[in-house]
């Protein structure tokens, strides 16, 4: 039985030996809570700039200080959000109980 390799010491070690991405240009990245999302995304963007891109979600809540429409979120009203849902134009959505808003 071959020896067990030592566990990685950093997120970089986790990604250094990954194989090339599959030919499908639409990869899905699944990661556990606490993975270091910013570090992971930066590494993926640096290694595969033509594969990965940020998405901008829609929300019915008001913008917070410093948030920019179209960059932070698309801030839309509830009827427009409900239209997106009825047209199956939203991949996923949720009604947040603690806030009277829709969020994608």
Walk me through the structure:
The strands form two sheets. A two-stranded parallel sheet has the order 1-2. The chain has a two-stranded antiparallel ribbon with strand order 3-4. It is elongated and about 60 Å long. β3 (94-96) and β4 (101-103) form a beta hairpin. The model has no long low-confidence stretch (mean pLDDT 78). The longest helix has 11 residues, at 37-47. 25% of the residues lie in helices and 10% in strands. The protein contains three helices and four strands, in the order ααββαββ. It has 104 residues and is an alpha+beta fold. The protein has a domain at 58-103: Guanylate Kinase phosphate binding domain (2-Layer Sandwich).
Keywords:
Guanylate Kinase phosphate binding domain, two-stranded parallel sheet, two-stranded antiparallel sheet, 3 helices, 4 strands, about 25% helix, elongated
Secondary-structure topology with pairs:
Elements: H1 11-16, H2 37-47, E1 58-59, E2 74-75, H3 78-86, E3 94-96, E4 101-103
Parallel strand pairs: 1-2
Antiparallel strand pairs: 3-4
Pfam families: Guanylate_kin
Keywords: Kinase, Transferase
Domain Guanylate kinase-like: 25-104
